[in-house]
Write a structure and sequence with these properties.
The protein is mainly beta and 425 residues long. Helix content is 3%, strand content 41%. A hairpin with a 5-residue loop joins strand 9 and strand 10.
């Protein structure tokens, strides 16, 4: 009987890792699953140019003159920074006894010599009515199962948000140059097929789901057509502490803002708390005291918009370079309590830079237990762009503060966005 529908139960999302986007992606670690996924959308569009001539009312042809646009976006609950590391972001390890050495989170994404610069993405669909995660039944990767691939893909935007009453969520968007569809079972060239869509490699002795690389050759547009292997998806991608967190909670999120000082602009002293003695006073913004306000939500976002670079003789863009500068924005909503003395003129006359740290701690139910920080976003060199107040009958008075900064170079630590915390990528 034909399949009636596809729902989230039978889907899983992956992206390539430590191998080139246009190579064989096989073996442990070549492709990894994204966890806690909430949505996945993909589409493609092909631009054509009409060929008209005198003597014919309608176009005699429609010619493809530009690279096709393939779009993919996904969102997931934030449980740790493993997804970020798999997507290509630089995540600085942190914890007891660790002296972190920070790097811009997009350090590798903007470096065309790395495998993080360009990736392939995959969506696996398994048999109807069966969970995709932790499913090792051979027949469930056949008869209605498929793999959709996004090839030659570049990360184009990232946003993270958390709010009272909701779960911290991340959204990312990707631009690619090709999309392929592979029905299972699929037998890669030279593979040892042992079942419906699964490959058993004796040297690894691990079941994997076989498919085809979606990348294309930028010169002639021909398919790479090399084999790939997806690992069987899991509920918890790695059975280690930190990956067993289902998701982080709004009650475990803290936001700290501080005036930037020169002593905190190095790779190892990127941030210090606002405790006494560190010369980083918690700021007041023309009437709004951050310490006294009750933060309701935050939103961090930045776009990595790209321009396709084409040349004669190439059917596809041979590169999609990032358009600099890259702007980072932070928006904070809060319930207002007491106002402080201040003036807009003070901001104009003393236009300070600010740093922000958003910390998300692990859920811990044991009484008196110390909650470890799982994720830290650190934003450097922020400037206050706007401040708006809202008050009406029946609602609390609120304030919204909008900040912006720009991503700096790999050795610039007074601007940009940095990530630190737990990841198992």
């Amino acid at each position: 009987m034909a399949r009636t529908r596809v729902i989230y139960q039978s889907e899983a999302v992956y992206c390539s890792q430590n191998v080139a986007f246009d190579a064989e992606q096989r073996g442990a670690g070549a492709i990894k699953q994204l966890s806690r996924v909430q949505s996945a959308n993909y589409s493609f569009s092909v631009a054509r140019q009409d060929v008209n001539q005198f003597g014919n009312l309608a176009a005699i042809d429609q010619i493809i003159t530009e690279s096709p646009t393939v779009s993919f976006d996904t969102s997931y609950y934030l449980a740790n920074f493993s997804n970020e590391a798999r997507l290509g972001f630089s995540v600085t390890a942190s914890g007891d006894g660790v002296t972190p050495t920070f790097a811009s989170c997009i350090e590798n994404i903007i470096d065309s010599s790395t495998n993080d610069y360009q990736k392939d993405y995959y969506m696996l669909t398994t048999k109807e009515g069966k969970d995709a995660n932790d499913n090792t039944t051979t027949g469930d990767f056949s008869y209605g199962s498929s793999i959709i691939g996004i090839g030659n893909a570049f990360l184009s935007s990232y946003s993270s948000e958390g709010a009272v009453g909701g779960l911290p969520t991340v959204s990312v968007s990707v631009e690619g140059q090709n999309m392929n569809f592979v029905n299972l079972p699929y037998a890669p060239t030279g593979g040892n097929v042992t079942g419906a869509g699964q490959v058993l490699d004796g040297s690894r002795n691990t079941l994997r789901i076989s498919g085809e690389n979606p990348a294309v050759n930028a010169t002639d547009g021909e398919k790479i057509a090399l084999p790939i292997e997806l690992p069987v998806p899991k509920t918890n991608v790695n059975a280690t502490v930190g990956n067993e967190i289902t998701t982080l909670r709004p009650g475990d999120i803290t936001l700290t803002l501080a005036k930037q000082t020169a002593t905190n602009n190095t790779a190892t002293t990127l941030w210090k708390s606002t405790s006494a003695g560190n010369n980083m006073d918690s700021p007041d913004y023309a009437g709004t005291s951050i310490d006294d306000s009750h933060i309701q939500s935050y939103n961090i976002s930045f776009d990595l918009s790209r321009s396709p670079i084409q040349k004669l003789g190439n059917r596809f863009a041979f590169a999609r370079s990032i358009d600099f500068p890259v702007n980072v924005s932070l928006s904070v909503d809060a319930v207002l309590s007491d106002l402080t003395t201040g003036s807009l003129a003070d901001i104009i006359n003393c236009d300070h830079k600010f740093d922000a740290k958003i910390s998300l701690k692990e859920p811990e139910c044991a009484p008196g237990a110390v909650k470890n920080v799982v994720c830290n976003y650190i934003l450097k060199g922020l400037k206050l762009d706007s401040q708006s107040f809202s008050s009406d009958i029946g609602s609390n008075k609120t304030v919204t503060l909008d900040f912006s900064s720009q991503v700096g170079g790999p050795d610039q630590f007074d601007h940009g966005i940095f990530m630190s915390g737990f990841n198992s990528a």
